[in-house]
Design brief:
The chain is built from 15 helices and 2 strands. It is mostly helical. It has one domain. Strand 1 and strand 2 form a beta hairpin. The longest helix is centred in the C-terminal third of the chain and has 38 residues. It is globular. The chain starts with 5 loop residues before the first helix and ends in a 13-residue tail after the last helix.
Length: about 375
């Protein structure tokens, strides 16, 4: 299989775009309450799709390296994961700090204790350590980082042991997600648990990772289907997801549908390529991490514009569209000038240097 599965990269971009629209959908009214100008049902669940995708990609990329894992190999793995997530997290975080310092945010710098500052710098806001985040949505990146630390254990149970053991790991993941759903800590829905005052956000990420690893192990059964059947399966799952979004009041049915979606898209078939592997959607997937981190910066600007120029739907939609364009542009810049150079720099600075042996004399 190719190391880069275009459909999986593209669906990550679609998920990021949906999350952006979801977060822009509700306008906080000056008189209290909210006005919903465009509503995305269960939009918060797309974060769980991120976790499953990451689990799958980790299995695809590191399954052989983790067969004989040593402390040195794991340190190299974690360095690459930090290099992937931290540069954009740190630089974009500075813009959140600047926004607070300028008085353009509901949060104030004086709200943050020394513990909060250290926790944010160490990217630990999603681990249940009571750390107030500077980037609210970064709990997901933090929880993903925590999942990387547990990856050797997760891989051992899902990839290297028997199918029965892998099945038990999947069952444990479902139990974990059910525990999150009944925790009573959800905001937008039962699974929308993001507050760093409990371990549930990290549990949510670990469950998604486990399912992503299991999808990698068992998705080969889809290869037994003809290409026409695989195409039909893509369409059928998307239709089912739409129906669940419209008619269901529970998070769990849509969450479960993410599993066959990732599995069938991982085969990169014709319909998967057409919908999620095309150039535009694929590019969104490439810059999706920056999109995810940057977009909350602009929600308040759309709201301010709406209040200033007339509290109408047309004003807010126009302001939101302008923000979407800015988010896309800044995400491209972040990817090119922060993510990629930062990744390279961290690996070069902190990676192990090859030992150079002195050249032998010709004599």
């Amino acid at each position: 299989m190719a190391a880069d599965i275009r459909a999986l990269t593209g669906v990550r971009g679609v998920a990021a775009a949906v999350i952006v629209v979801y977060h822009f959908g509700d306008v906080q009214l000056a008189t209290g309450g909210t006005a919903s100008y465009f509503r995305i049902p269960f939009g918060y669940l797309l974060v769980d799709l991120f976790f499953m995708l990451s689990g799958y990609v980790m299995a695809l990329t590191y399954r052989d390296a983790f067969d004989h894992l040593t402390p040195s190999k794991f340190a190299t793995f974690m360095l690459k994961r930090v290099a992937r997530l931290y540069p954009a997290y740190f630089v974009i975080g500075l813009f959140y700090v600047a926004k607070m310092a300028a008085g353009l945010s509901g949060d104030k710098l004086e709200m943050y204790s020394a513990w909060d500052v250290v926790g944010n710098l160490l990217m630990m806001t999603g681990w249940g350590f009571y750390i107030y985040p500077m980037i609210g949505v970064a709990w997901a990146a933090s929880a993903e980082m925590g999942s990387y630390l547990l990856l050797p254990i997760l891989m051992a149970f899902t990839l290297r042991k028997s199918a029965l053991t892998a099945g038990l790991a999947v069952l444990a993941a479902f139990v974990a997600i059910y525990a999150v759903s009944i925790s009573g800590r959800g905001t937008g829905g039962s699974l929308d648990v993001v507050n760093g005052n409990s371990f549930y956000p990290l549990l949510r990420a670990v469950a998604g990772f486990t399912l992503g690893l299991a999808i990698f192990r068992f998705a080969g059964v889809i290869d037994r289907l003809s290409m026409t059947m695989q195409d039909a399966l893509v369409i059928g799952i998307l239709v089912a997801m739409f129906a669940v979004g419209v008619f269901s009041h529970s998070d769990l049915p849509l969450y479960v549908l993410f599993i066959p979606l990732v599995a069938v898209l991982s085969r990169d078939g014709r319909m998967a390529q057409w919908l999620f592997g095309n150039a535009l959607v694929y590019r969104l997937g490439i810059i999706s991490y920056s999109i995810y981190l940057i977009h909350p910066l602009f929600v308040s600007f759309a709201v301010r514009t709406w209040r200033h120029f007339g509290q109408t739907e047309a004003v807010y939609v126009a302001a939101a569209c302008a923000c979407f364009a800015a988010i896309w542009l800044l995400s491209e810049l972040s990817y090119r000038f922060v993510e990629m150079p930062g990744r390279k720099a961290i690996v070069e600075w902190f990676g192990s240097k090859p030992e150079h042996t002195p050249a032998r004399s010709a004599s």
